[in-house]
Amino acid sequence: MKALWLQRGIVGLAWLAFGLCARADTVTNWKTFTDPAGRYSILMPGDPQHQASDSPSSGGKPASHSNLYMVGENGNIYMAGSTLYDSTTNMEVERELAANRDNFNQGISAQTTSQQRLKFAGYPALKFKSSSPQANFSALVVLNGTHCYMVVAAYRTADEPPEVGRFFQSYKLISP
Known about the structure:
The protein is of the alpha+beta class. Helices cover 22% and strands 43% of the residues. It has a single domain, classed as Protein Transport Mog1p, Chain A (3-Layer(aba) Sandwich). It has three helices and ten strands, in the order αβββββαββββαβ.
């Protein structure tokens, strides 16, 4: 299964990366964003744009609802989102974590440069970094049953900027 929000988010990511973020924004007022359902919170450098999508069950894929929040600052892009699958879906943890990583990389023509399987707030998670000719990416995928959460930062520098670390360190699951 794919986190469907990710497919739509990649389009948004590309749009932001090569449109909005081509200019150097001066937004420095980081503030806590909590998704409207109260599932997670994270610091973002501005008010994020929201994309939502619903996918009906078809071809063996379960129904899902996705929300993606994105904001760009100083050439970097910050995204946080969730995909909630039908509650009867049987999620195979390792396959789902790997599929999220692989689908993300495929959508942006990137290659994984490092990865670490871990627990995040007690839930199975995969932290990975990827690189493409356009940008470098840091990502975290967290699974809680049929809820999939993903946080991504895109940046054009070789090393991860300090703001990216701040972004990931602030991520908290509240009521997953």
